[in-house]
Design goal:
Elements: E1 2-4, H1 8-17, E2 22-27, E3 33-38, H2 40-43, E4 46-50, H3 54-67
Parallel strand pairs: 1-4
Antiparallel strand pairs: 2-3, 3-4
Length: about 90
């Protein structure tokens, strides 16, 4: 499970408060922050939280669109070029 958080530090604090300790937090080479928290006790898996970027939103939109009406065939498909994913893509 993954989601976007406008304030990554505040969201990490909220997750720790839920009893989901942070197991990793880092930044990509383009400067986008993300973290993984251990929610296995409550939901059975890790959770991911990301700072939103246009490129990452494009990726998630593409994945969501690809899942609609999926019939179970061709589970591994190539990704199209979605353009730059990090904050540098958003700079003028």
């Amino acid at each position: 499970m993954a989601w976007f958080a406008d304030d990554l530090a505040a969201e990490q604090q909220r997750l720790v408060g839920l009893g989901w300790p942070r197991i990793m937090a880092t930044r990509t080479s383009s400067g986008s922050g993300y973290a993984f928290h251990d929610a296995r006790h409550d939901v059975g898996h890790l959770v991911e939280v990301y700072e939103p970027t246009e490129g990452l939103r494009r990726l998630y939109d593409h994945v969501a669109a690809a899942s609609r009406d999926w019939d179970g065939r061709n589970p591994v498909r190539p990704l199209p070029d979605l353009g730059p994913a990090g904050p540098s893509a958003e700079r003028p």
